[in-house]
Amino acid sequence: MPAVRPQAAGSNLAFDWLRLPLLGRFLRWKRARLVLQSAMALIAAVLVFEGLAGPQLAPKNLATLAVWVHWRGALVLALLVLGNVFCMGCPLMLPRELARKIRTPSRDWPRLLRRKWIGLGLFVGVLFVYEWLDLWASPAATAWAILLYFGVALLVDAVFRGAPFCKWVCPVGQFNFVASTFSPFEVRARDRAVCDGCSTKDCIKGRVASAPAKLESPPQVVQRGCELGLFLPSKVGNLDCTFCLDCVHACPEDNVAIALRVPAAELQVDPVRSGIGRLSKRSDLAVLTVVFAFGALLNAFGMVGPVYALQRSIAAFLGTQSDFVILGVLFVACLGLLPLISIGGTAWWVARSTGTGLLAHARRFAFTLAPLGFGVWLAHYCFHFLTGLWTFVPVTQAAAARHGIGGLGRPAWGLGGLHEAWVWPIEIGFVALGVVGSLALAWSLSERDFGQSARKAFLPWAGLHVALAATALWLLAQPMEMRGTFL
Amino acid sequence: MQLRLETSGTETSLMSTCIKKLLTALFALLGAACSGTGGETQGLTARLAFDPQPHVGWVECTVALLNADGTPAQCSEIELEGNMNHAGMVPEFASAEPRGEGVFVAQLEFTMGGDWLIFVRGKSEAGQAFEIVTDVPGVRAQARAAEVAQNTGK
Fold first, then answer.
1. Contacts (Cβ under 8 Å, ≥6 apart) of A74
2. B92 vs chain A: nearest CA distance in angstroms?
3. Which helix (H) or strand (E) segment is A129 a member of?
C-alpha cells in the first residue's frame, strides 16, 4: 500500500471556518458549544413538554413535527453542505457535563466493547421501534424517546470516562459519522509540521493547571483534549468526529482548521487512523455502513404502498398478525439477508475473477455504499422536510395560543411546503449524487487495489450500486401511503 | 348519488401484540394525564359517506349527524377537516352545505393514500361547539406521477 499522508486526502485550507470573520471568532470562543447545546436543550425541553402535554395528533404537535420532519431534514442537509454540526450542538452532553461537576467518572469503557456493535444494534433498534410503534404518529412516544435518550447518555457518560456514548453507543451519532464521510468540511491540522514539533499533544491529552490546588489532589483539567481518541496529526476525515472543537481550544499553536475537502475522499485511503485504525480491518464499521445504506432503503420502503402488500403476504405465510414478528422478518430480510446475498455475491464474483480474499475485499468495498446510502437518506428526509417546510408555523401558532401567548395570530393551517412536483427532481438529484459518489469511490478503490484489473472489480460493484439506486428511485416514485396498521 | 362507504367514529386500530398494546396505552395514558383533554361528542354521532370511494383526489363527503336516539340532529356551521396522523401532514378543510334532516355535503380532497381522520366540527342545536372524529382507513393512493400531474393540472 502506498504511503499516504493521511490528511492530504483532498483537503483545501483556503477555506477555513475558523478563519471566517464572525463565525470563526464564535467557534473559537470556548463557550460556543455550550451556547449551541443550550439552545438545543431548550428546544428539546419544549418538545418534551409539547409531546406530553400537547395535542396527540402528530401533525399538530411540535414534538413529532420538529423531530421527524424538521430535525431529520435539517440534519441531513447540514451533513451535506457543512458537516457534523448537529453533534456539535448535541444537547445530550449538557446533563453529563453537570453530572461530571458533581462526580468525575473513574472507569474506562470496557476494551471488549470498543467497537461499533452496540451503536449498530441500537441504530437498527431505533429504525425498528420507529416502524413498530409508529413514532412519527405519537407525540407522547416521541417525548419519551427524547427523555430516554437523555437518560441513557447521562448514565453511560456518568459511569465511564471520555465520550463513550458518542463514540460507541449513540445511534444517531453512528448515523452522523457514516453520513459525514460525504460532508465537504473536516476538522484537521492546519500544518502537519507544527504537529510534528509539538511535545505536549494537548489536542488529545488536554491541558491541566500548572499546579494543583492541593498537593494531594489530581491535576485540574483546564481544557480537555479529544474525548473520542482522535489525535489530530493522524486524524483522517470525519469518522468519529463530533465537531466538539475541544482540539481547537486545546491546541496551543492554533493549528486546527475546519477545512474544505473532497467529500468521501477519506474513504479512498486506508492509512492507520487515530482512534479508528485501518478501515480495511474494521468489520464493525463496514457492517455499519452496509446497514446505513440498506436501512435507507428500508426506511423509505416503510412509507409506501407496496410495503403493506408485502407485510400482508408475510402475515398470511406465517399465520400471524403480530406487527413485531412481521416487521422482524422484514428487518432480517432487508438488513441481513439482502445485504448478505447482494454484497456477498458481488464480493464473491470479484474474488473469483481477481483471486483476492473474499472477506477482506467485501470489508474494503462495503464503504463504497456510504455515498449512495446517504443520497437515499437525503432524498427521503428532504421529501418530508421540503413538502412540510412551513408546517411548523401553524403548529407553533396553535401551541402559543394554547399557552396563552398572544401575537402570533391564528394558526395558518394551509401552510405546507414545496409542491411534490418540485421536490421529486431534488430527490432524483440526491440519489444521483449518491450513486455517482459510490461509483467514483468504487472505481478509485478498484484502481488502487487491482491496478490493470480494476474493471474486474469495478463492474460488479457498479452493477450493485446502480441496482440499489434504481430500487431507491422506484421506492421514492411510489405514492406515499401512511397507515396506522397494515392488516 | 352512490354512497359506498360508511364509517363511524367508534373504530379503533387493531394492535396485534401485547407489548405494543401496553406501550401504546402507557404513552396515551401519560400523554392524556398531562394534557387533561378528552373527546366530547355531546351525544352526537356523525356518519360519513363518500362518493366515489375515498381515493387520492376530490371526493364528495356526505355527513349525517344523529342524536343519541337516532333522530337527525339540527346542527349548523359544519366544517370538515381531513388529516392524517403523521408529522408534516397539511390538513384539508371544507365547509359543508346543509341539505336538511341533519345531512351536510362537502367536497373534500384526499391528498395522500393511507389512513385518514375526518374531524366534523360545528354547533349543536343548543349552540354548543362540538367535534367528532371519524376514521377513514385505507384511502387509495395512485401512482405518484399521476398525483403530481393531477395536482399541477398537467
1. A86, A385
2. 8
3. helix A117-132
